[in-house]
Amino acid sequence: EAATVHQAENATISQGVVESNHVGYTGTGFVNYDNLIGSYVEFTVDATAAETTPLTFRFANGTTADRPMAITVNGTPLRTVSFPGTGAWTSWREVSADAPLNAGANTIRATATTANGGPNLDALTVGTPSGPDWSVS
Ligand code: GCU
């Protein structure tokens, strides 16, 4: 199945703001998580069939401290994913985690686990990251 890109600025945001002051994002901006434990971004994504598929988060972290986030799928903890420093707030990279999705709608939430909050989050790609609809760099 083709990968689908979901922009963080269009997702449900708790304790974060949409900004566009650091270039290199896709879409119209990114989410700047508030610097506290528990801030989150939640995406609703559709899957045509139940399947385990990669979730790929595009982010920037201009500090030297990791900003790990807890990932839940449909309310069930999946794992904690590391969002390490990328060298600059304008340097974006991707990290992936495989997740089991249900057929139909799924909620994917990425919650900050440290007092630094999350990284700046640009987008979530669901599905194998290849093909013309996955061309961020
Ligand atoms: C800076 C940066 C923000 C970032 C923030 C942070 O203020 O400009 O984009 O979100 O640091 O540490 O979270």
From TrEMBL:
Taxonomy, superkingdom: Bacteria
Limits of the CBM6 domain: 4-127
Protein name per the record: Glycoside hydrolase family 88 protein
